[in-house]
Amino acid sequence: MFLTITTTGTPERPATDLGYLLHKHPEKSQAFSTSYGKAHVLYPEADAERCAAALLLEVDAVALVRRGKGKGRGGAPDAALAQYVNDRPYAASSLLAVALSAVFSSAMRGVCNARPERAAQPLPLRIEVPALPARGGPELVRRLFEPLGWAVTAEPVPLDVRFPEWGDSRYVRLVLESEALTLAEALRHLYVLLPVLDDAKHYWVSSDEVDKLLRAGEGWLPDHPEQKLITSRYLSRRWSLTREAMERLELVRLAEADDSEVEDIDNAVEAESEVEEKPTPLAVQRRDAIIAALKASGAARVLDLGCGQGQLVQALLKDPAFTEIVGVDVSMRALTIAGRRLKLDRMGERQASRVKLFQGSLAYTDNRLKGYDAAVLSEVIEHLDLPRLPALEYAVFGSARPRTVLVTTPNVEYNVRWESLPAGHVRHGDHRFEWTRDEFRAWATAVAERHGYGVQFVPVGPDDPEVGPPTQMAIFEMNTADMNTGTQNNLNDEKKEAKAA
Ligand code: SAH
Hints:
Layout: E1 2-8, H1 17-22, E2 30-34, E3 37-46, E4 50-59, H2 61-68, H3 94-103, H4 105-108, H5 116-119, E5 125-133, H6 137-145, E6 151-158, E7 168-178, H7 183-198, H8 208-216, H9 227-234, H10 239-272, H11 282-297, E8 301-305, H12 311-317, E9 324-329, H13 332-342, H14 349-352, E10 355-359, E11 374-378, H15 389-400, E12 404-410, H16 437-451, E13 453-460, E14 471-478, H17 483-500
Parallel strand pairs: 8-9, 8-11, 9-10, 11-12
Antiparallel strand pairs: 1-4, 1-5, 2-3, 3-4, 5-7, 6-7, 12-14, 13-14
Helix pairs in contact: 3-7, 7-9, 8-10, 9-10
The protein binds S-adenosyl-L-homocysteine.
S-adenosyl-L-homocysteine binds at residues 180, 306-308, 311, 329-331, 334, 361-363, 378-380, 383-384.
């Protein structure tokens, strides 16, 4: 029974940091006793570029049956010999989930004293479970993991490779990939969803299971479209517990909805307080500068790339000059919050037809991004590792090719003016870099040259004579001579893709 967690890294952020995050040293192989057998943690790979941790569980089938005596599913006594001859030792299942929480309990809570900033950041993750019992098959596996921001590969494992006509077993080979989740989030997804897929809990379900479920589900379960199935299966279909859990989840949802309303009012108050000479928050100044630049460019159909929780989309919707607004983000969680902020479900048809939110990664070309007037990348580029930036550059300027592109990013020179910011620190834990004005100019100018755009720079926020403004914005406009080649590029892309398909 085993599972591997793999991450990739760069010289500045070595992949071996995974060892710190898991609280398990990559150079040691370690064993832990659990009530059902021995759990081993080992690292098949560990260097700066790639690091893989494996959790292997050796199940003691006899101990399992002894412990479970008289406590089978639904409380039925377990007398059958079948109990001894089962598939438990070979399959990943709820036992693996129990082992995960025992061996990686701090990691699951997001605690990491050695690398606190890393624990709070999303990282590239690949999780593989070679044999996962999955009642409901690959289809259900996707319905459970995809809404959480995972790219899912779930292949049915044949019952017997020698006899394909026997059909598939109830196992799938599962591979999950994401760049938008923290390790703690990933572990909490597995902790809940592995037993849900197994659908055969090995221990008696009591009401503290509801607490465990809500704790592990914090931040994702209240918004999950399959929340009911997850809750009911996790609690072994005990309806009284399921109802309790569903009621508590509803309370969480309501509390969160209230919070976002409060935040909206705060923003409105802040925006209006300009007249009283209270400083306008930088986020509002940035939004205003972006909207002014979009209007100056005459754009009507706009992409907000890395839209986060949808504040800009919301502001653009208020202006009828923008006929179509598309928010794209790699984080499903951000998109869920954006949807709630925009009240998409309660929007009239007319409004609703102007706005779209979808999940996508800017590190890949995407045909859905073609044909728009303008694209905004507001405080997004600094969230990508530098080596990924050329991929984003190609996806936006080479493939999507809107006429206008706005890019904002922090000006690192200004950081000395921030009283609350310790010297040498970036502004946000997930910033992979922050640039000086010169560095940003050099990058933007080269991008413009490579793709047939002109570029101008605009300060956002107070432009300090020494260190410049807190935010820097580049406005790219496609050269008129390149407009046709742009279309040509798009056509070529389509031909290439059609061929590949
Ligand atoms: N544009 C918003 C949010 C900025 S935070 C604003 O100005 O307030 C950066 C956002 O970029 C996050 O929501 C993050 O999920 C998203 N992001 C990071 N890497 C991404 C990628 N490769 N593809 C798409 N979105 C990404």
